[in-house]
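Teaching soon. Invent one.


***
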Amino acid sequence: MKKVIQYVMLLLMLVCCHQNIMAQKKVIDTSAIRQWPMLTKAGDNGAISDDGKYVMITIDSAGSPITILRSTSGDWQYIALYSQWDSFSRDGKKAILKASKDDMSIVTLANKQTEYLANVKQYSIAQSANKDWLVYTMMTGPGVFVRDISSDYVYSFTLLDEILKQQGDNVLAIEHIGIDSIALKIIHLSDQTIAEIWRGKLATNYVFNRKGDQLAFATPGEIWYYRTGMKKAVVLAGKEMKNHWRSGGSLNFSANGRWLFTDLLQPIIGQRLATNGVPINIWNYQDSRLPIQHPSDDSHFLYSLGVIDLQKANQIGSQKIQNLGLDLYRNGKDELLTKPAQIPEDYLIVAHRNGGIHEDWWNPASMPEIDLLSLRDGKRVCLKKSQQSYWGPNFYLSPSGRYVVYFDNLGGKNATLQWYSYEIATGVTQSLTKRAGFPFNVQLDDYDFPLTRYVPYGFGGWLGQDEAVLLKDQYDIWKVELSGSADPVNLTGGSGRKNKIKFDLVDRDDGTNTHDPSWNKTDTILLTAFNKTNKEFGFFQLGLKAPVLRMLAMGPYWYGEYARTSFSNLKSAGPWLFKRETASDAPNWFYTRDWKTVTRLTDLQPQKPYNWLTSELLTWKTFNGKTGQGILYKPENFDSHKKYAVIVHYYEQRSGELNQFKAPTLADGPIDIPYMVSRGYLVFEPDIHYTIGEPGESAYNYIVSGAEYLTKYPFVDKAHIGLQGHSFGGYQTNYIITRSNLFAAAMSASGWANLIGRYGAISVGGGNSSYESREATSEIHRSRIGATLWERPDLYIKNSPIFRVDKIKTPLLLMNNTVDDDVPFFLGVEFFTALRRLKKPAWMLQYEGEGHVLRDEKDKIDFTIRMTQFFDHYLKDVPAPAWMTTEIY
């Protein structure tokens, strides 16, 4: 009963207009955070019918979802409690909802009639060429049921037990025969017939091709194949699979359906020296990898990629699996830049290296060679020789397989940083962007890592029949012909650069996952737009034929992560269903047909009972004369006649989040801004721009100058300003308190103080390698030193707070944990012991079993409370808690 009441209250909050809450608003506490209701993740939980007359939206209340089906005119709605899944039929006449754990609802939208299906076990929506089908099984007994959603006619296949896969016109199901035998059967949706294609004891790894007319699956030691028209499935590969097929390995069809890929096992070439039974690793400076980056098991096998040519499938039983000689997965010598399921024709693009992927800017063994690999004969054509790489290779195969398009960022300072096309048939390479006159690599005012210049702004997709591509520079969208015969065309007319608006393409996913987006030459497409100056966000319409750019909406809003996933309909002509939010207005669903009239569909405002926040963009001059920007968060009940304590929080650049709604969360490293503001703090987030070699002083320049600027406001209590940062922000906290005594308290979570100690440390979780050295972080990534320790030891010393602990006067709270895969625990310990040795007021929290960020809810609650107590003591003069004053065993 209590749960039902909670739902009723939530629904009233969702669909009714809010009245002003006159009573004093509550402070956000950990209990409120744990029960905070919100719209669930976009994309998967919002749908709009093709005619734009109905929408389905899902809301999550403390882990219990609710789906609302309603008309966009607002005259009707249907609410499904505990709803988990929803879909419209393609004709827009039906809505299907998984209304509870085992029940489904089918709503006929014309007459609003609802039919309930109870005890549903499995379900899926199958879309054949001209019909939608609901395919399901029941908990009450065997049988697979196929329902024509338009006519509601149900076809029953009562002997079947389980749905395995569905694609296109075919559904794969299973029938259990006797104790240990099964039969695989195909239901053909086109004529509602059924055919048995295989019978045996064990089958796994079922996969359809994109069209659904080919099926592959595995049995112990065999790969089987079926295509529409065959009477039975047949063995593609058998004897040669013994001891070579990876148990549980994947099967994948290429996008064109010609090739079937599988994982193979093959012995590792080379020897391991005998160690006479001694558990020892030998570290050799000549090795391409560190010993701990090699496989740790005793199988001595590597995973390779095998391929079968299905055009020769009439020779069933004699098929050979061509081993492409790729060393995948564990050793990572070969990286597939084109995934098997994305292959349009007969080629793969492969990056080959012998060393670890994270050493490719200095280790010759790790520098990638880019090859075009033929699936017909396994031969390789080298596209780019092994060269220094500061950023991963960016290579794309065109949808017809005619061209390779790539960004030339290999070769270090010799990289041209331009886009090129390579025609496979002729081997001709053309520069695509040299004549544009603008850079297509990321600029320092966006991201200022040393490796930034090697990163492209992005590939926007294919235009026409491999005729052109869409490419992005810092602000605008360009069309570039692949032949290189014409000058690049700025489709947005330079409007982005002129107005400091960053245009981007809204992702379009047709569900095939075959290649990057393809656009017709006459399409009108949707762009996102972000104004770097005032942080406004919106949408533009771009006609590709003319081209014509038209603003649809622009304002002080946030539309999700660049609105990529918050749209459920990306047809440029509309209608649109989308999420919108501001700092003080929670994310809600909106609807529009033309962007002139926008209708709010939900009014979820969980922040209303609480002392919420407002956001304000501040601009000031830094110590070195540059312009600084940052966000000042104030409590909703802000009184300019009062004095407020301030917490300065930072990480890279955050001013773009000015209009984001920050749903409160338990602190897992960074502070939670709504939580602290609700408790009467101001929170200030300054952007930081860096000078290479000066990460510490750059942080000081922007953070401290911003804090000093704040002290000019009469409502700021200049004697009670604190600092808080996590990870790199924790490092900056540690540095700043060695340079300034402005702050009354500081909190550093998962930070470090010694760049020399961190330089050669190894962290777990290095992608393709099992372990990653932190050299990259120091030299070319976030720490931004820009040189090795031996080239510029002075910069490593200058930027390491450990060498100036004696200058610290600010009380400091640390959090460092033993299983931190990014910042080794000893770095936190050595900083704390230095502080303790010099009798500096410092405390360190160490949570057992935790890492770089806290995962366990009870640890997050504890950390949230202790950090609040620490700041309350130093910034609000609240008595210190016992853990700060008493030795605890």
